[in-house]
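Before the break, one more example. Copy the sequence into your notebook; we will annotate it together after we see the structure.
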Amino acid sequence: MLYFAVAYYVNPVRDFESPAGHPFPAVRSDYRNEKITLLESFIEAAPDQPVTGLVLGSSRSMLLNGDRLKSSTGLRFFNFGLASARGEDFLSALRWSMTRKGQKPKMVIIGVDVASLASERAFGDSIHPLRELATGTLSTFQTVRTLVPRLAEWSYAQSVLFSMYLAVRPREPLVGFAPDGTLQYRLHDRRRQEGTFSFTSDMAGCMATCRRKIESVEHLSPAQVNYLRTAVTEARNNGAEVVVWLTGPHPQTAQFMAVDTAYKRLRAEAQQVLHEVGNLGAHTYDLHDPSAYSGDPDGWYDCNHFDNRNAVRVEQIVTQSWRKH
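Here is what the structure looks like once it is written out:
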């Protein structure tokens, strides 16, 4: 019991809410708690300026910048992208945002990827009350039943110990967030300024990690696709213009992921999903291949995430329907 109490307090992967100034840093996080807190603060900072634009998606969507999107559309955007998000996360983040007093997005941008629509399991197993907004299945018993075995894993214990170590020997954080929820690659950007950064330095390991997410997957998950459809429908019914774009990794990563896996089929199924949500009234863009947005071949932070040079190009495409108003 003592270990579980320590794991709960240290909270190394942010399964639980942590107060401001929590002494133990996150080893990793899916950012659910962080984004909820950020959204509340974003609303409180300008109560007379409601959130009229919302970005949803997994980590590739988290670099879409609220200030740049505002300059293109005039809307006040918040980025509610989450690490390794699934379809259910798109829906739950949308519903959470729309329950905040006075918030009614006029534009919702959803970045989907093969993994977000294929996986039945989210990063961190989605042990968070936010999930109930989408699935309606979370209960205290179910949470405890799932969470206790997870905390008992040796890898979780290692995360607890590493977080305690980092509290004593802190390191510069790899990422952070702007007030509008936009992800900032702080360490990478600093190394770029110093001329010591190369996104290809761990290309092999990064590509292997991406591949593991889809190695055993044969088809997209009907449940996750349905969550996406529901998110599009609910946003449209609430008067929002909806944009759904298909994201992709670095081209070398996509090639590596397609060898002896069902990745090409999964991508084709994702393209079909774009067509389906288009029929629901969403504007859709297949930007899996960087050539679709004239991507800079060096505009990447790693094998899976583009940098701001390419984010700007994506933003210009996904906002073009609004700019035509």
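The chain has one domain: 34-126+173-323. Confidence is low (pLDDT under 50) at residues 122-127. Try to locate both features in your own notes.
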